[in-house]
Specification:
Alpha-Beta Plaits, Aminopeptidase, 12 strands, alpha/beta, EC 3.4.17.2
Amino acid sequence: MKVLLFFGLVAFALADVTRFEGDKVLRLKPVLNEHVKVIRELANSVQLDFWAPESAEQVTVGMSVDIRVPAQYLDMVFTVLQQSGMQLEVFIDDVQEAVDRQIENKGSPRAHSYTKYNTWSDIESWMNSMATFNSDMISKEVIGNTYEGRPMVVLKIGKKSGSTKPAIFMDCGFHAREWISHAFCQWFVNEAVTTYGSDSQMTSLLDKMDVFVLPVFNIDGYVFTHTNNRMWRKTRSRNAGSSCLGTDPNRNFNAGWCTIGASTNPCSETYCGTAPESEIESKNLADFIRKNKSIIKAYITIHSYSQLLLFPYSYTYELAADHDELMAVAKGASSALRSLYGTVYTSGPGAPTIYPAAGGSDDWAYDLGVKYSYTFELRDEGQYGFLLPESQIKPTCEETMLAVKYIAAHVQKNLY
């Protein structure tokens, strides 16, 4: 009886894992208003997963639109698109195959690997070890728990000092499926510790400033991408009156909240929540930054994909008061990044550079008074999208380090 119960539980667990056999990722090129209308009508009639932009409402003439189309809708979607005359290209022919290829089967490394997509349990153990074995450089603080009760841990990196130092705050993993983001925060922490004393730029930074790193913001969602649905994006909170779970945490901050580029529909991938900071994860982060507002001089949030370096604003087309300086720093950072592998990033304020989106953490931090507020959208430009292979973790993190260090050096020289 116990054996039958065990196999029954295993079968139930396996049945709950979302598979993507036959799904395709298409890149569309709407060049007419009619094309935009076709895309929005398709989104209303079948379940499309928007990779870029994040919803049908954000689609405009002239932009590239990446969508995942479930296998059962492909014939109908292809027919409609071809009848519209819209240009399309298949970027990923079989999403499940791309999911399976993303993880390279090299066996389990004895030490924490910075070139693998680690699970939350691995990351949690790693954070404990890093703080224990580098106590002169790293301390950790739990800033609250997630909706499902997991601890949100911030690592404070810097040479211990008797006085309070100015700081930079960096987070990764707002959107659960953006795995390269989580990988970068781990890479940054290790690089900071291992190059301190040998890299003059990193040494100067950590002598004079601290860096707060939140390696995984949306922990519940990230766990779910490993156990149930690789394409999950939002948090995992329950929404009253709806069977749809989760909120888009990067629409949940008090920065033009839910006015543009966000949805009040709990089933939308850009659902803004019931109020600013209605998500406990958003409130935990905001409370920490508010508490340390006097010392935090820069806010950097790491996302993927599209190869962009953005700054405020996204909730309005108005330029930030510090626009010229923010643009100059972004261009300098993008140039530093490009110097290693030739990877090209586009820099600019969020709304005019890609699309308007209210409720973002970068806009919120800037309006709070954190002048140097930046969003990275890491590799690539759509060939793999959210399924960037592990073989690209190292080059992506190496080049991104150059950009982050460029920003940090500017902040260090221009404290306010």
